[in-house]
């Protein structure tokens, strides 16, 4: 286990979080999410809030990293706290993808082994194809599909297919073979407490 | 193995003089010579679809325009489309539901009005770019294959008319040429007429000889409207200068070429394209007409029935390293690894390359041999065919040999040429020949190290089962500059045991001494 300096993982009920996953920093995992074993979520710079019904597959990495500038500030000790990285709902992070985007909307798919750099803003309904690497500063308009070796773009016309079947299946199967982290938050109860 | 994927530094000269890595060469056992892709006939063995692996006969393939009937390619990214199923809730009309319930259950008096019926519907989807057939408004189908509509393009009728017209033109052309030939050849009355002997009618003979019946009508091409050229191509719309173009809605050149009959401008006119068929091909030596490659017929099989790849018969040469940094004019040595792929010991002798004059002389000689063989062959076949046609072996009609239409066409040989690559270093060939041991796969499992029985020549660095590491001395030319590539060439003479023999009387395997010219790019001159 990495040094648990400030590991604060909030897991809402009805979500499946495998114990073998790496969760570092202040992370909130909303209802219905499925985090596979060996997936990592690294909240270095600030908190990460994962929206509802997201799937994070094996070896996928969602990272909120400090920029060089912020690193220097941190060393000097005058780093202002960063705003949380909010990941929308119904996103799929496929095997081996690395996503460091500064903003992620809803219903996006990050296919296997893709890379999304820290200066990218992903809106809604986008698909980043397998092995596609986005490094430059850019905003992906809604329903963008990027595919192929040459990173060609097109606009998805067909509406997003929900992953409910897949999530239901994983929710059934994963607990049979993996140790899970217990959900420690119940939105209903917290609301009643507040 | 390294030279299968990337360009090799060791090249073999084919018998035609073209340089190739060994992985791209074939070895004809009957000639026995190296053959490259230009020295073999490429023949289509079978057509098949690479996606569903269905074997399609060639006539059917031509009918279907060499496309698979069931598989489609994505018009957007040219990936294979896959059919995906969705369940759709079919809303039943009340009376229909009642009727259905009566028929099925009978006793069940009250059919449940809330009962919904689901139906499977299919659409095509691309797993690479997420294009779907719904994007362009193709309705979902109730069966996964076979029912997808063909998109008829606007020019289809015009295209058909043109195709018909030009077919007629070709037909007419052929007829006229035959007529002309018939009139030109003088009628010979030296021989008894064929019809007298066999009782065949003229029209049957004509048909047998591939000529058309005399009394058939001449094909006349139907008139078609010629294409019109026009000066007026219309103006660009005003909006193109003022509004931003959304490039996502415009097709790429590749997408347009993939859909050649429409070449759509916008992406909403991209339709699934039928997948083109693949072929299995066999390769045939152009000199002796034996197969060098023959694949197995079935599309699912990746095996061969005949596979005479050069790497199974010719010693494989690999560049290991250069002894010293390459300097112009300074003696150097290169370590080469030779391996024997055959089941017989090879005796190898490395000599210098033939000079250009020698090479030209060899080519001349080869050409002379070819023409000699050709004329004897054509004369013989001509005589044979004449004999069989007339049934009289006493014919000695040398005059009729000029009638070329009876002679079988011999395949065109690849013109041999001088090797283009010029060697720029002086080889110092080893003074003795050496033995390259046979390949023995079981030898690798032997525990005891091999005992060297006889003393090795000094140029052999080491030896292991069927492999030999040898050091070859050479001097790069003195006038080479820094950065120039250095090429070393040598002629490798090797003994090859041919287990197939052309003559049935001789069953003993024959041993040939063969040679191949090898060019090695050893590196570039260092600063
Ligand atoms: Zn050749
Ligand atoms: Zn097919
Ligand atoms: Zn596609
Ligand atoms: Zn041959």
Descriptive account of the structure:
- The complex is a heterodimer of chains A (194) and B (527).
- Chain A contains 3 helices and 21 strands.
- Chain A is of the alpha/beta class.
- Chain A has an 8-stranded mixed β-sheet with strand order 2-5-8-11-14-17-20-21, covered by helices on one side. A 6-stranded parallel β-sheet of chain A has the order 3-6-9-12-15-18, with no helix packed on it.
- In chain A, strand 20 and strand 21 (152-155) form a beta hairpin.
- Chain A is globular, with a radius of gyration of 17 Å.
- With 527 residues, chain B is α+β, with helices and mostly antiparallel strands.
- Among the domains of chain B are: 26-66 and 278-313, no CATH class; 72-90 and 119-166 and 243-276, no CATH class; 314-377 and 414-525, no CATH class.
- Helices cover 20% and strands 27% of the residues of chain B.
- Chain B contains 8 helices and 22 strands.
- In chain B, the strands form 6 sheets. A 6-stranded antiparallel β-sheet of chain B has the order 2-1-22-21-16-18, with no helix packed on it.
- Chain B is extended and about 95 Å long.
- The model of chain B is unreliable at 96-109 and 378-410 (pLDDT under 50).
- Classes of the chains: A alpha/beta (194), B alpha+beta (527).
- The A-B interface holds A 127, 129-130, 145, 147-148, 152-158 and B 76-77, 128-132, 134-135, 248-249, 252, 267.
- Bound molecules: zinc ion (4 copies).
- One zinc ion binds at residues 49, 51-52, 54, 68, 70-71, 275 of chain B.
- Chain A: Part of the dynactin complex that activates the molecular motor dynein for ultra-processive transport along microtubules.
- Chain A: Belongs to the dynactin subunits 5/6 family. Dynactin subunit 6 subfamily.
- Chain A: It is found in: Cytoplasm, Cytoskeleton.
